[in-house]
Amino acid sequence: ATKAVANLVLLDSKFSSLPGVVDEGRRVIANIERVSRLFLTKVVWAMTLTLVFGGFMWAYPILPRQISAMDVFTIGLPSFALALLPNPRRYVRGFLKRALFFCLPGGLIIGGAVIALDVWLRGLGYTAEQERTCTAILMSLAGLWVLAALARPFTRASLAIVVAMYALMIGTFATPAIGQFFGFAELSFNQWMPPVALGILVCAGLETVNRVVATKAPTR
Q1: CB 134 within 8 Å of CB 117
Q2: Which residue of 104, 138, 163, 169 shows the fewest CB atoms closer than 10 Å?
């Protein structure tokens, strides 16, 4: 009868099991919130680019397979790894509000930067392949900064995940065979400057948004 009406039953009759139950619940809830921001941020910038480029009938600035390549080290692998890490943060209501406060401005910043880069590169006479490569670089830098922001406070495990994803990004663009497979062009040093410069500005904007959200979020 007790099992039928109880919300929680201690099968071993030991209250010492409760801290582990609480820790597991906190890990699941907090990591779901953290990982979901990666996906929601992508949804916002993807919708922004779709509306703008579709509305003006411009060529989309990046190929689907190039987006898939970026998703591996900005969303796919890190979201799987982060979801398994311990997270002691207590649950506080308002997940959707906190997520939107980060994802909406963050996604709009990334989308706006991609649009600005596309206009800038057209004026500089870049080829379509070079424009797509520069867009991929900008979006990769922005996506990894979002990952780094959500992985804080850093532990050895979370820091290792972020460093590994940065290394994977560098390998993706620096390895000729991989670049050729995904359609990335080889860029000169000067051609790297526009996406890197905009990437730094985007990262600064994302960091500002993250700090504002962090003041409203629980820590433990």
Answers
A1: yes
A2: 163
